[in-house]
Amino acid sequence: MSDTHGRSGPRLPVTIDTTKPHEARFYDYWLGGADNYPVDRALGDRIASYVPTIRTMVRHNRAFLGRAVRYAMTELGITQFLDIGTGLPTARNTHEVAQDVDPAARIVYVDKDPLVLAHARAVMASAKAGKTAFIHADLHDPESILADPAITATLDLDQPVAITLTLIMMYFRDSDDPQGIIARLLEAVPAGSSLTISHPTADFNPTATAQAVDACERAGIAMVPRTRAEIEKLFAGTEIVEPGVVTLEDWHPELAEESLYEVDPDAGPAWIWAGVGRKP
After folding, report:
1. φ, ψ for residue 183 (rounded to 5)?
2. Which of 265, 97, 114 is nearest to 196 (CA)?
């Protein structure tokens, strides 16, 4: 079963602008998808000129997402997911991984891009025993997410929920209060819930990262890489599970499934820190 919900606000686009690049669309381009436009591919190629292994990095991120979902279910006993910044449909979305483990798993997807909304039904091909829903909202306004009727119609907020924020918090400047936004989400879920974050960093190559950041900023897209210590602070209010905040490929590799994406084994570490925290 699946549902779509719409919600507009001062930051929330309701039309698709093909003249400006969009985060979800150039990410889709790097993954080999077809839901992108020339302007997205141009920015994607420019970033790749500075970070040649970016396509491998985003594939590592998709693989990490799958491992984090399986960990939440098999190790933490969580069967509900709030996936914010879900992006465009691609292989092995959260509900597919979760419902392979438990067909009754429930998932709410959130994204601000109207193109993602247009593809929501394709994203939400839920198993019959489970349920998925989609909220068109912007994480800058967490109340718009938490107040949406899809939340309580899909998730039982008296039971633990896995909040998933993969490759999204880098679009939030410190002035946006990313820690406050995450704290509000955690406040809405009970003890035993989890928080999954993956986040780019300049820790590995400051020069190349700065060039990629400049390309995004010139295109009108906020891009804030953070240090490992800064990313660990985003987990405030949770206890970070082992092995802590590490590079994508080092987070519980034993939970990997056969990748649907080709990953260059010689590409070196992804310039992305990742981890999972549990709300005590």
Report:
1. -60, -40
2. 97
State pLDDT tens for residues 85-114: 887 656 678 988 999 999 999 999 998 877
Residues 57 and 272: their CA atoms lie apart, in Å, by 8
Q: Which residue has the tokens 């309580």?
A: 152
What is this structure's pTM? 0.90
Q: Domains of the chain (ranges plus CATH)?
A: 2-9+19-278 (3.40.50.150)
